[in-house]
Amino acid sequence: MTKAVLLTLYGRAWCHLCDDMRAALEPLLAEFGAQVEVIDVDADPSLEARYNELVPVLVCDGVELCHYHLDVARVRAALATRDRGAHLNLYRGSNAA
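Structure tokens predicted for Glutaredoxin (97 residues):
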């Protein structure tokens, strides 16, 4: 069984763009079996300093995919790449001698 891709969404509780990105992300999460961890930047001074006015920021494997609005094409490409990689690793593991 492959491990689900985990995306990280940095945002704020009162941020309507964060709510919009989270809602727009739902179909992609379902399509790829991915999960999202939502982190409130206001709860951590270092995250607040780093992301401040950029929120929402969507990250996968340490790579910022988009901020302010969901970039569907970029997120889809990142998830598809991760999905292909997981399938290749699973295939290689099943053929190991």
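The helical segments are 16-32, 45-51, 72-94.
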